[in-house]
Amino acid sequence: MQFICRALLFIFIVVVPTVSMAVLQDEIQVYDDEINAKGESSLELHVNSTPRGVQTPSYPGEVMNNNGVRVTPELAYGLGHDLEAGLYISYVNYDNKFQYAATKLRMKWLPIREDKGDDFFAGANLELSNVQPQFDESRYNGEIRFIVGKHFDEWLFSFNPIIDMPLSQPYVHQSPYYSSATRLSREVIPDLALGVEYYSNLNQLGQPINYQNTQQLGFLMMYYDGKPVSFQAGVGKGFSNSTDSLTLKAIFSIPLN
User: What gap in Å lies between CA 135 and CA 5, rounded to an integer?
Assistant: First the structure.
């Protein structure tokens, strides 16, 4: 158990991202071992805002996060055989204008789970996206997010190494980008946990290190897993010049059957 934790910490330190790029912050979330059973459907509503953010665009015409609000409903359906399908439709309210931002399809595979008797949980999530050009220079993108973690009594640790690949010209032949998402939380009373999350976005693999050009964002989090609606909410602070100074986020989880 101690070996696994130390190995994950080493991986996280070694592969911290180094070069930033534009990214639509429609989903700020660390994936863990939650997955719908076969035939089970659910709705998650992702809401986040940036009261204080970076104001200099990284390319002409980019819509910045500063003073913006992002709202993303996500439908998910359990396919069985450790598979779950998801659909996101993202919207952004910026400069008093509410506009469509992106559509994303995903497939989550979680074959290793503690509730099946395994010592930890592990899997992967594959995502394909169609993003409007004012939110991402590459219109079409692919992402594979690896998921690994473990429950330690009241504690939960989850780590997501993420590889992003632009699929549109002129970026289709570039190196992929690396990012990571990490969660450590503790249940303080039944159905309520407190914790921290850390996001490092993004590094183009093989490029030199420049910390201030990376996006480094940490959150203080609260997680409620009760009824009638489960939710998580947090306040985030940026730790580099390329990161929004203040980000607020919440995710509401609504079972549909």
Answer: 36
Share of the chain above pLDDT 90, in %: 72
- Inter-residue contact 255 to 67 (CB < 8 Å): no
DSSP-derived pairing of the beta strands 140-152 and 155-166:
antiparallel
> Which residues, 6+ apart, have CB-to-CB distance to 189 below 8 Å?
none
User: Distance (Å, rounded) from C-alpha 26 to C-alpha 43?
Assistant: 15
Give me the DSSP letters along 72-138: EEEEEEEEETTEEEEEEEEEEEETTEEEEEEEEEEEEEEEE-GGGT-SSEEEEEEEEEEE-TTT-SS
Residue count (the chain): 257
For residues 81 and 79, give the distance between their C-alpha atoms in angstroms, rounded to a whole number. 7
Residues 6+ apart with CB under 8 A from 227: none
Check if the beta carbon of residue 198 is closer than 8 Å to that of residue 217.
Answer: yes
Q: What is the pLDDT of residues 107-157, one digit of tens each?
A: 999 999 999 999 999 999 999 999 999 999 899 999 999 999 999 999 999
- 235 residue type, one letter: V
